[in-house]
Amino acid sequence: MDTQQITAPSRASSRVPGRVTAFGVIHVNSIHTSRFTIIGNHLAQHGELSLVAIGLAVHIQSLPDGAKVGIKVLADRFPESEARIAAALRELEEHRYLERTLERLPEGKIVTRTISYNRPDARPEAAASPAPNSEPVRGPEPMPVPVREPEPVETPPAPVPPPPAPPRPPLPQPQAPDLTRHRIATDLLAGLRRDEPRLLLAEHDIRRLAPAVAAWLERDAHPDAVRHTLTTDLPQPLKHPAGLLAHRLTALLPPPLPAAPAPNPREPLQNCDRCDRAFRAPVPGHCRDCRADTQTAA
């Protein structure tokens, strides 16, 4: 009988030659040359962090600077709820893998500033300035996302208040009180509405303006002239009739009439009808001597 040829192995060979174990995980490792992140065993094998917190820390460390890692953003990215993600973030804060602070931007908006540490004892200064001749702890990073600086908000200059209005000049007042003149002034103001319906004045306005009209009358201004000055060329629209009349009575006040020249006390010269001698008399006639001769002859 021929010798039996054994062509099949007695049992299946291991997928990884030379590394046969009875149980446990078998690692098949490849060298990464791009798009990789180095994670320390202190995080991957942390004894107090939950699996969600460990996975969330790995995800955050793999992101570029400037990436958004808010609770809502992470909840949209992963199937875990917002409550579980919030709890995992608090775990990472307690074990100093994460630091979150609230900051107010120049325009007043409040944002959350998040800092991720690949080691709990790392500080921002040490991470920004690695020691010389040290091995890189991360592979080639993608280009960082530029963070747009908030534009400065220009504060408009405070409005300059207008200068105070100069005080209004007082209304004219008569030099001497005169009841008749005051009554004429009151009647004139009350009757302005007959000439111009818009000049309907209240009773207290008439009492206030009557002395000014009396001052015009005291300066020999005729009532018709005062009425014409107050009712001519009224503006459109007329909002404050009493204020307009007060302005015109003050600004257009006429000056007092100059004093009339005193009459000359000396009588004019006359020529005597009898002797032709000059003498002073209000009318022509005889001089004093001729009048005496006439009276003696009679």
Question: Describe it for me?
Answer:
The chain has 298 residues and is mainly alpha-helical. Among the domains are: 41-127, Arc Repressor Mutant, subunit A; 179-251, no CATH class. Helices cover 34% and strands 7% of the residues. It contains eleven helices and four strands, in the order H-H-H-H-E-E-H-H-H-H-H-H-E-E-H. The chain has helices at residues 41-44, 51-61, 71-77, 82-94, 124-128, 179-190, 192-195, 203-218, 223-231, 241-251, 288-297; strands at residues 98-104, 110-116, 269-271, 278-280. The strands form two sheets. The protein has a two-stranded antiparallel ribbon. A two-stranded antiparallel ribbon has the order 3-4. Helix 6 packs across helix 8 (203-218). The longest helix is centred in the last third of the chain and has 16 residues, at 203-218. The radius of gyration is 58 Å and the shape is rod-shaped. The termini are far apart. Residues 126-137 have low confidence and may be disordered.
Which shape, going by the Cα principal axes?
A: rod-shaped
| Class by SSE composition | mainly alpha
Order of helices and strands: HHHHEEHHHHHHEEH
Terminal CA distance reads 221 Å
Low-confidence stretches: 126-137
Helix share, percent: 25-40%
The major sheet is characterized as: 2 strands, antiparallel
Mean pLDDT: 81
Q: Which value, in Å, is the CA radius of gyration?
A: 58 Å
> Based on the structure given, which CATH architecture of the domain at 41-127 is correct?
Orthogonal Bundle
Q: What is CATH's topology name of the domain at 41-127?
A: Arc Repressor Mutant, subunit A
| Beta-strand residue fraction | 5-15%
Number of helical elements:
11
Q: What's the β-strand tally? A: 4
Widest sheet, order of strands = 1-2
